[in-house]
Amino acid sequence: MTLQLELLRHGETTAGGGFHGSTDAPLAERGWQQMRAALATSSAWDLIISSPLTRCEAFARELAEQTGVPLRIEADLRELHFGDWEGRNSAEILLEDSEALGQFWNDPYRFTPPNAEPVRDFADRVLAAVERLQSELDGQRVLLITHGGVMRLLLARARGLPESQLLQVEVGFGALHRLQVEAGLGLTEA
């Protein structure tokens, strides 16, 4: 059996661009529109799962109420915490410490921003949660409303990319991707 996992990234937020991993910014009106448009032709999930951050959870609660699909909040599927870079944009960090920013972009598993969650710990947390969900929800179709980092991680793994290419995976606001999750955390794009 296989878990059919649809991944929906939250839309644009009121915080604008930058490193907003644990920043709990709400969706901007455009963000709501992006998410609604992404799901215009999708439905029939057995379960909706959401990150606990407002930019995901608010939309997930509205969708669950409208569709009657049960909702579960999963804290382990929240975004990476960026430490001292949290709430800042790349241009600011580039001016302050271009070397550190370059190291992070080139190999996020080997370079951790100051006081941030190491990407390896983030990956372990997210992959353990997905493996647990696959075991529990095998054979079901689930919508996961989450973040760019979570989706990059899962898509990079499904594509067999090396760790150094994690941040090269493109995931726009309101992007929708489909994965099949097999036992043992076998991931393939559907």
TrEMBL record:
Q: Where, by residue number, does the polypeptide cross the bilayer?
A: none
Q: Where does substrate bind?
A: R55
What is the uppermost EC class here?
hydrolase
Molecular-function GO term, any one:
alpha-ribazole phosphatase activity
Q: Which GO terms describe its cellular component?
A: cytoplasm
**Name of a matching Pfam family:** His_Phos_1
What's in the keyword line of the UniProt record? Hydrolase
- The keyword Hydrolase is annotated on this UniProt entry: yes
Tell me which EC number(s) this protein carries: 3.1.3.73
Q: Where is the active site?
A: H10, E79
Is Hydrolase given among the entry's keywords?
A: yes
Q: Cite the InterPro entries for this sequence.
A: His_Pase_superF_clade-1 (IPR013078), His_PPase_superfam (IPR029033), PGM_Phosphatase (IPR050275)
> What is this protein identified as?
Alpha-ribazole phosphatase
Species whose genome carries this gene: Pseudomonas fluvialis
